[in-house]
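Input:
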Amino acid sequence: MHLSPLKTKKYVKAALKDERVRKAVDKATQTVINARKHVIDQIGYWEDLRLKNHAMKRDVIENLADYLQMFESNCRKNEIQVLWAADALEARQIILDLAKKNGVKKIVKSKSLTTEEIELNPALQENGIESLETDLGEYIVQLMDQIPSHLTMPAMHLSRQDIGRLFQEKLCVEYTDDPVALMGIARKILREHFLSSDMGLSGANFGVAGSGVLCILENEANAHLTLSLPRLHVVVMGIEKLVPDLKSVPFILKALASSATGQKSTCYVNFIGGPSREKYGEGPEEVIVILLDNGRSKIVKEPLLRETLFCIRCGACLNHCPVYQQIGGHAYGSVYMGPIGICLTPQYLGESEGRHSPSLCSICGACYDVCPVKIDMPRHILMLRNRIVEKGYSMKAERIGMKGWAFLTKHPMLYRLATWFPGQFQRLLPKGMAFPAPGYTRDRVMGRFDPKGFRKRYFKLRDI
Amino acid sequence: MKISLFIPCLTEHLYPESALSMVKILNHLGHEVEYVENQTCCGQPAFNSGYRKEIIPIAERFIELFKDEEVIVAPSGSCVAMIRVFYRELAIRKELIPGLEALNQKIFEFTEFLVDVLKVTRLGGRYPHKVTYHDSCHLNRELGVREQPRELIRGIRDIDFVEMEKSDICCGFGGTFSYKQKGISIEMVKRKCKYIDESEADFCIGADSSCLMNIDGYLRKHRMKARTMHIAELLAKSLDFEC
Amino acid sequence: MSDSRDIILETLKEAGQIPTKREAVPQDLDERIARGLEKVTPKTQQGLIEQFQKELELVSGEFHRLKNANAAADIVLEIMKQNGYEKITVTGENICQRISDIMIKVDESIVCVDPLNLPYPERKELLAEVPIALVEASFGITDIGALVFPYDDSQTSLPHFLSECVISVISGKNLVPNQFDLFDKLPPEKAKNMVFIAGPSRTADIEKILILGAHGPRRLVVLMFD
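Output:
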């Protein structure tokens, strides 16, 4: 399934009609909102933690060249291979080459948004390589040939009945909608694949520059099995996902688990400092990290917008966004969704293709309130709207309207004259009838224009 | 204190009662009020839609018009936020920057002004009705004004103040958002009105006419019980002022 | 590809020249966080153990505080009997060995498997068949109820993930109040290869309903020795 951010209008319309998905999205986001609040209320230093993480990510992003070289050098000391991919095409090619070189027929994958971003699965399919998502939500979404609808809850838009029917159809099992049984089915099938795959492919929550270590957080144990059972472990990681040293790790861990799922910690935190087969008699023979650029380095050059690269992919902004809560993830038309998504899409894809993304926001600021690294998304969205206007991608009618309004406000007499008309027109309408404002008034009554306006009434009042 | 009025466009043309109420209350508290002539608009709708170049002259005009006033009060959080928080992002003429900085120290939203500057929470009024309060996004998150309106409401005798669920969730107006993404906007206001309905309040009080217009519009169209009321009007009504 | 590396680094170096206006970070930020942590840190050993138990049980782990290896052996045998398990993987030295020795004495039919004797891939194939594992944690993080397994100590991690039921022994002396403390105590070399485990594996991907036992263990039992 290929979505385009240019088609959000269509997707939003469809999303708003789909009551079932909307209910599911509402329930899922509300559950995590409550769980998060419960955990954060127990962290007395939460606001200080946000400041700390923000400062730490700023240091990393502003000195990213140095930190990446440090990371590469320390990885090499740990016998982790480091490869660099300028864009999605190069990243896909590197993985295909590795697969070919190593005779890889089957890959198990643990959750990785970067691999969605580079559209890896179709490329693997084309080359006859079987690739299985192992995170339960991702596995389900893969069977449906969809993309995830949330950063951390990929199948949140589906009900248990949907999943029961899906498994019955695609896996040839008896229908059940008992969640425990459904998990059991997936466990059995995927366990076989874990044990027989040639390559494990994962993302990484972050890389520790000062130690050459990768950190992967999870709850299901699928990531550990992905990174420890096959002979090869390949990691695709965005270049921005570094932290300076091991001492910084607890700060990020506390922020990530609480913000993403409302847990005090994820069930598992994996630290990978090298291929372990020789040392411990198990684990991969090779660990390879692919550092992915794909538009990130360009964003680092932006003095204000570079903050969008601080993102640790927790999804808290999605959960708290009143727009996301109404439309779910697919409506954004991109792998990156929600408030952070609409900041990233025009930056990664350009103002033309991303021109509609920043409009999926009412600038309420709920996202900034909850972001654990304090990314000021409302400000960035306003800035991106400006970019889109400057580049000429706003709607012509709107441009004319805005310029007209701006002209009037500079000329008070004309302004007063122009704004006198609606009040008079209101007078002509039958009493109680709303002012016509097509579109806006589909489900709402427009306010009543006052024929006199404040200024006249005020002067009358004052003269009494 | 001589208080200069900053009257946002929605207030001027659609909700003058809220500003007139504000004037009456300030007079009642013994202050002189002045209307700065030739004020028009702060430029927020254009700014929010991404037009910055176009509104630089508007911002410069606003600063020139208001910078020498003693203190400025407006019955709207989003417009005050536009001045205090967002004007500095515009490439205005360098010589006006000190003027803007001075302006930012003395421009206030109405409830913020009453409680934080005039130190008034009880006006001595009475309003025996059930009300709830909607936190407008800019007022709440950009200006940090949450408690002040609540204190003023609680200061009214015999009022039954109930908090609605998620009082601070966006009502869906968002300026041009209400038009550009009308489908989503309507669902958001529907949700807000559901919470108001569940609170069983007769009135939903707010400090921003844009939100109140949006919410009121939905309540009326769907013949729901509650209506919106600007907090200035509420306070004026509690003192039996005619507006 | 080395071209990509050069291009990326070049762009980033240029970017590094462009400064941003930094938000002022309070000078005493680290202190404030440390104070905040201290407020929620138990002050006694008993307090730490109680906090660990509470957090572990909140993530559906099971907790037993024991005096000796005999008591531990009893618990393990009971679990094996309940579930009809005949084989158990035993890793870790000292206490785990003592427990398994006692178990074999009590019930000869039990088979204790030592994974470290086996090379790969036999090791993974065997471990995939053994439903229960006895392991030893090097540390416990009390504020999140997690066990810490540096591979330098445990030498393996497959039993911890392939089994249905994991039983971990831990000494009460090895509890640390939080992750910040852990990284202070743990030598950096050890910290490079390790895993934290907080409860049995789980998922909430179906309608946000919590399911214990996703791809890994369904059950985690902690045996704490003082």
